[in-house]
Amino acid sequence: MTAAMEMPRVQECVVAACAYNSAGDCHAFAITIGSMDHAHCHTFVESPVRGGADDLIAQVGACQRSDCRHNEQLECHAPSIRVGPDNDMADCMTYDGR
Question: Cα 63 from chain centroid?
Answer without folding.
Answer: 8
